[in-house]
Amino acid sequence: xxxxxxxxxxxxxxxxxxxxxxxIENIDYYPKGSQERKDTLNRYFGASKVFQTKEExxxxxxxxxxxxxxxxxxxxxxGVSYIGEYEAWIKTLDALDIRNLxxxxxxxxxxxxxxxxxxxxxxxxxxxxxxxxxx
Length: 135
Description:
This protein has 135 residues and is an alpha+beta fold. The chain contains 4 helices and 4 strands, in the order E-E-H-E-H-E-H-H.
């Protein structure tokens, strides 16, 4: 019987993610951009930690491999593999969405300079994410 499992590294707009999974081919079953594909990507990689470099992700993959091979069930059929680049599976909020959300939560509009500074940082981060997403 086949274990059909491996440790898979994929690049997403927010960085590299690593997952121990079975039947990884399922992530490419649905068309790119479809909700079904986004749901599948989320199931496989949603709980995984984000790494900024491929090298960091590879090191994590090998750490996970060692952990599995030292467990009570040391089976890893496909080892550690890089499987390519994928789109984000969550909606990216724009800066205006976030500003409106924070203003609604605190009930004040542009009265607290500390909140405005946080908003500037959030807006910069969100714009970088939006600009880095594949179109």
